[in-house]
Amino acid sequence: MTGPIDDEVPIGRDSGRVSLFLAVALIGVLAIIGLSYDGAGQLRSMQRADNLAAEAARAGGQAIDLDQLLVDGTTVLDPAAAQTAVDNYLASVDGVRLTEVRFEAVGDNAALTVSLELDYDTVFLDLFGFADNITVPGTATATLLTTTNR
Asked: What is the pTM of this model?
């Protein structure tokens, strides 16, 4: 027999298979890069949200009731002034939503807890059908401590 055997594959029929594999693999690699980049961005946003909540809680924690301090020397938190201080601090930051300001007692001391939210705008993940924005929470507590020098 001098003709080709029926079971043989003619040369050139499998061309393009490597390109298809590389195209599929490239999509997977881009998805991993997107997860890494946007995951790190979300972590940075979470840290920023916690830092902003801590600074707002510190600002509110400095709002003590001066009348009470002058009357008997005790330092207590003025809730209205603390709320105003938190609102004023967060008004200077774009994209922050204040969710809660809570006043409570921790032992003999007053505490102020600030909770807020930020949005992280995804860069790569929205290309793969994920949400364009991710809401990131932040919470911090400031405790009013008093000291005396004797």
From this structure: 0.75
